[in-house]
Amino acid sequence: MTHHITISVETPWYDLFSRGSRDWLRHNEKVREAVQQNLPNLVAGPDVITGSQDRTVQVPVKLLEHARFRLSDASSQSSAGQGRGKPGDVLRQAQPDMGGDEGEGGNNDGEVKMLLEFKVDDIIDWLWEELQLPDLQPKRNTAINDDEYVREGWDKHGARARLDRRRTVKEAVKRRATQVNPVPFTNEDLRFKQLVHRRKPATNAVVIFALDVSASMTDAERKLAKSFFFFVLQGIRRRYGKVETRFIAHTTQAWEFNEHEFFNVSGTGGTGASTAFKLALEMIDAEYDPSQYNGYLFYASDGENFTEDRAAATDYLSRLGKLLNYIGYVETVPGSPRTSETEMKMLCGEIERSGAPVGSSILTRHEDVWKAIRKFFVQEQTE
To answer: Is 377 exposed, middle or buried (0-12, 13-18, 19+ CB in 10 A)?
Structure first.
């Protein structure tokens, strides 16, 4: 006899599993939703880019409860029924409880949430898995030799911290098997792990972040830029063994800052983007040989720039495009995008059409960060 199993397309996908598996899958789905909803909080604190990569973040997750019968509170005066009814009785909805002032505590059941602690690296793994982003490809011949100590073999002498207990016990067992009235351990039983110095190839990268801090940049625009900078750096760190970061802020002049100052500094006056690009070029020429470093520049601005600065900005960006793996420009426009192209958008578009590794995106809300990151990774992969 042939059995046919019919699955309704309206059935939730986790209903196809056992009860225990369904509960686990539903919980995992809720956790992922909670993590994504709290992503802006990941970059709310100070020094999120240069801070420890082992740090954790707490995410509130709503507890899932199964439907169940529950006895009414003994002090309650209402119940599900009011005795036998008579023909003609009018049924109506229960009257709302008007007692109690708003904001006071009560004894009713409320929503229960628990705080789950995650490593930032684990959250980034989830995001990259869902985005299905390609791996970045380092430039050829950019690997340099790096020092490495690896464990290799054993010795009877060595530092106490490198004592191999399992190997020591094995040596003691073998010795006691051939002796009469053996002692538990001797110095001859001790075995220590040995470290050998090796040279290994490592790929290095430098990421330069540049930010327009002129008077026209608002706090909302800075937050969008900070969020993009943070998550794009996490993707780069997944590919390279060593990543250095530099921070440039500018108005009509450019300065280098540490991360904390970078996201808090504000200036007055106009915008001269060429000053930031010139400083980035000087950094590359002085400290980051393109034959040994994979270089990236990410620039965030509201799009405004002096028209008189266009020639200089174009020149410096074009020269950087010949040295760097990629240049990414994000235009921060909270709310709704502009109907016309800005000065910086047109400038980057011209350089991109000339064949330089340049890409640009518009950020109007936090969700646009993922579109910009996807565009960057996919476009850089095809260069």
So the answer is: buried
Query: From CA 211, how far away is CA 280, in angstroms rounded?
Result: 12
- pLDDT at site 7: 46
Please enumerate in sequence order all residues whose Cβ is within 8 A of that of 326, keeping only pairs 6 or more positions apart, or say none: 296, 297, 357, 358, 359, 376, 379, 380, 383
**Cβ contact 171:154 at 8 Å:** no
Cα separation, 264 vs 377, whole angstroms: 28
Residues 112, 20: Cα–Cα separation, whole Å: 21
Structure-token match 């930031």, residue found: 276
pLDDT tens digits for range 137-196: 676 655 555 555 556 667 777 777 778 888 888 888 888 888 888 888 888 888 888 776
> What is the distance between the alpha carbons of residues 58 and 64, in angstroms, rounded to a whole number?
18
How far apart are the C-alpha atoms of 267 and 297, rounded to whole Å?
22
Q: Which two tokens stand for residue 82?
A: 């009011």
Which residue in 268, 270, 229, 272 sits closest to 254, CA to CA? 272
Query: Distance (Å, rounded) from C-alpha 368 to C-alpha 383?
Result: 23
Residue with tokens 């399992």: 166
Strand-pair partners of 151: 195
Q: 336: buried, middle or exposed (CB in 10 Å: 19+, 13-18, 0-12)?
A: exposed
Nearest 5 degrees, angle CA 317-CA 318-CA 319?
90
Quote the Cα angle for 317-308-214, to 5°: 75
pTM value surpassing 0.70: no
pLDDT in tens, 286-306: 999 888 888 999 999 988 898
Secondary structure of residue 342 in the 3-state scheme: coil
Strand partners, 56: 119
- Report, in this order, helix, strand and coil percent for the chain, each rounded to 5: 35, 20, 45
Question: CB pairs under 8 A, 24+ apart, for 345-351?
Answer: 345/303, 347/273, 347/305, 347/310, 347/313, 347/314, 347/317, 348/317, 350/314, 351/314, 351/317, 351/318, 351/321
Q: Which pair of tokens denotes residue 150? A: 């690896």
CA 227, CA 260: separation in Å to the nearest integer?
A: 14
